[in-house]
């Protein structure tokens, strides 16, 4: 009986918090160069957003979502750019830590630039280069 009460309590807590919880955001920016297109393909365990393209300095592509509990929410995106998309990187753009309480309002900003891939967790902080492009 105690196990059933625990499961019900966790379920009520999760759904209650998830409704009040601000969605997490992953933002993708193309800061390569004028005329250069960023191709990207983002997917999670539950969603495959397909292959898309983002023009230079276009409105960022945004993924909004709640963490899934008890599964770890994870989003991966493959970024491709250059002649014949000859430069690429498969990035884990978001990963929730193991927890019973979901994260709320998390931000992950990823920017593709000619010299690499940049990252920030807050809008008011500078993007920092974290990855170099792989040559295919």
From TrEMBL:
<keyword id="KW-0713">Self-incompatibility</keyword>
<keyword id="KW-0732">Signal</keyword>
<dbReference type="GO" id="GO:0005576">
    <property type="term" value="C:extracellular region"/>
</dbReference>
<keyword id="KW-0964">Secreted</keyword>
<protein>
    <recommendedName>
        <fullName>S-protein homolog</fullName>
    </recommendedName>
</protein>
<dbReference type="GO" id="GO:0060320">
    <property type="term" value="P:rejection of self pollen"/>
</dbReference>
<comment type="similarity">
    <text>Belongs to the plant self-incompatibility (S1) protein family.</text>
</comment>
<feature type="signal peptide">
    <location>
        <begin position="1"/>
        <end position="20"/>
    </location>
</feature>
<dbReference type="InterPro" id="IPR010264">
    <property type="entry name" value="Self-incomp_S1"/>
</dbReference>
<dbReference type="Pfam" id="PF05938">
    <property type="entry name" value="Self-incomp_S1"/>
</dbReference>
């Amino acid at each position: 009986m105690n196990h059933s009460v625990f499961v019900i309590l966790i379920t009520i807590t999760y759904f209650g918090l998830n409704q009040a919880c601000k969605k997490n955001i992953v933002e993708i920016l193309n800061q390569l160069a004028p005329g250069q297109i960023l191709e990207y393909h983002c997917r999670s365990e539950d969603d495959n957003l397909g292959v898309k393209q983002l023009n230079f300095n276009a409105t960022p592509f945004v993924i909004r979502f709640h963490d899934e509990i008890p599964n770890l929410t994870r989003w991966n995106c493959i970024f491709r750019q250059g002649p014949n998309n000859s430069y690429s990187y498969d990035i884990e753009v978001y990963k929730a830590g193991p927890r019973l309480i979901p994260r709320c309002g998390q931000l992950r900003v990823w920017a593709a630039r000619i010299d690499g891939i940049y990252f920030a967790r807050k809008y008011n902080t500078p993007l920092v280069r974290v990855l170099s492009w792989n040559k295919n």
